[in-house]
Amino acid sequence: MIRGIFQKKRVNSLGQEMKANENFDSCVMKNLQNYKLSQLISLYEKEQLAHVSGKKIFIACYPKSGSTFLLHALMQCLHQERIKLVAHHETQQLYYPYLLDNFQVSGIEKRHMLATRPNIDLFKQFHIRPSILVRNIFDVIVSSVDYLRPELQWPRQCGTISKEFFRLPFDKKVDYLIAVAVPWFISFYVSWKLAESEFEINWLSFEQVMADKIAGIQKILLYFIVLRLS
């Protein structure tokens, strides 16, 4: 039954519909009702998805946007590990040697990464299509203030947090993050919106994922499968 539902012809037709409508998000949501998570995982693992390159799911995200939950949920569902594709956790750039080393490796990665010219070129060269995870920017700031502690690591590429920050009252911490981090959040969003003109991008929001976690995972898997087989 599953084989009948998930014929390559069927998935190709979804890919054609995506291109015809130029609106992948509506295409995915319209078809989610036809796919259970277990079936999507089965299709992801099928031999017909075998490819010269490994299967890679990449999530570019805001801090405090649910990315760690999605990463671990996908790792558990797909029985795959996190792969390292950047040289250092503070860098926003894909690292060409790691992409070569992991070319035939399947895995999942998430990074607070802008759609820079080098990143776009490497995503295209290695046929990796990212899912972009965002969140209401006001909620990100409040959540970040609640999260930040001297012993916890904040992604430095999103703005440097000084030692003085931790001595500030709550409202001043909010002001500090607005000045330091919000410009990065805006650059993140704008860079990926502009990148849509060059390759396929799957948009997700924290609000969508938290409202229906299974549907959020399904959307990432279906996006990957459609692009892989189309």
Short key terms for the protein model shown above:
4-stranded parallel sheet, Rossmann fold, 12 helices, 230 residues, alpha/beta
Structural commentary:
α8 crosses α9 (170-180). The chain has helices at residues 2-5, 8-21, 24-31, 37-45, 67-78, 96-101, 117-125, 137-147, 170-180, 182-195, 206-211, 213-229, and strands at 56-61, 107-111, 131-134, 202-205. It has 12 helices and 4 strands, in the order ααααβααβαβαααβαα. Mean pLDDT is 79; it is low at 1-25. It has a 4-stranded parallel β-sheet, sandwiched between helices. The protein has a single domain (2-136, 199-229), classed as Rossmann fold (3-Layer(aba) Sandwich). The two termini are 22 Å apart. It is α/β, with parallel strands linked by helices and 230 residues long.
Order of helices and strands: HHHHEHHEHEHHHEHH
CATH fold call: Rossmann fold
Number of strands: 4
Quaternary state of this entry equals single chain
Quickly name the level 1 CATH class.
Alpha Beta
Strand order of the largest sheet: 2-1-3-4
* Mean pLDDT across all amino acids: 79
